[in-house]
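FAQ

Q: What does a record look like?
A: Structure on top, sequence underneath. For example:
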């Protein structure tokens, strides 16, 4: 399994926008009890990526991107495996 962190500054603005838009449009992406506009969701995710509290990853096996919180246990496990 090859999973890579992708620095957001390596993507064009257009590519980053597309990744974030795809992420927030997925089924199961829920922001709680209050309805949140797509624009607000987009800005929240973008801000977290820019601030480092979320990271963009790419999975070679599935050829997909995902956005995870920086403290997600999955990332810690990946870091440990790469050790």
């Amino acid at each position: 399994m090859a999973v890579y962190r992708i620095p957001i500054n390596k993507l064009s603005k257009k590519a980053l926008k597309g990744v974030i838009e795809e992420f927030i449009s997925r089924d199961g992406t829920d922001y709680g009890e209050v309805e949140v506009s797509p624009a607000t969701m987009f800005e929240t995710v973008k801000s977290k990526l820019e601030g480092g509290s979320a990271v963009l990853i790419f999975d070679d096996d599935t050829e997909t991107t995902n956005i995870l919180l920086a403290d997600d246990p999955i990332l810690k496990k990946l870091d440990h495996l790469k050790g």
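Q: Is there anything notable about this one?
A: Strands lie at 3-6, 54-59, 64-69.
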